[in-house]
Amino acid sequence: MNRKIGILRGINVGGKRKILMVDLKSTCEKLGLKNVTTYIQSGNLIFNSDKPNSELENELEKAITEKYGFDVPVIVRTEKELENSINNNPFFDKDTDIKQLHLTFLKEKPNMENLEKILTFKYEPDKFQIEDKDAFIFCAEKYHESKLTNNFFEKQLKVGATTRNWKTVMKLSELSKN
């Protein structure tokens, strides 16, 4: 079975849209996912499944809506896809403070017109670069002060998105190898 990473958007933020990780794990197991692990309360899953990513995204979204009564976008990546994302980060090197790095996972690859349009936005000193289904972000200060948010990428690229800091990205990669 393939190792996969599920990233949920917008749960357990500010006491809203609460989902306990033990309940999320149980929901995943009822869907037939194997070796399910969660990481921190923001909705990160690691599990085994041979189903296609898009099918898993739909199943998880539907199960969460049915159980909790609210919609939660889910993005699934394989262990290999996450590893490729880590290796492709143009802002990551040995001298970079990882607190400045974030990865916005895009639900699908944006179309060329929207990609060209988003490249006209400049929010220096913050920077971003889009590769396939990843938006790599470098924040000179704090992420919550940046204009390079999930909403920015969703609005400009017209695709679903959710962001994780680089520490979480690296931990998800580490956990997916266990």
TrEMBL record:
This is DUF1697 domain-containing protein. Gene3D superfamilies: SP0830-like domains (3.30.70.1280). Coiled coil: none annotated. It holds the Pfam family DUF1697. SUPFAM superfamilies: SP0830-like. It comes from Oceanihabitans sediminis. Transmembrane segments: none annotated. It comes from the Bacteria.
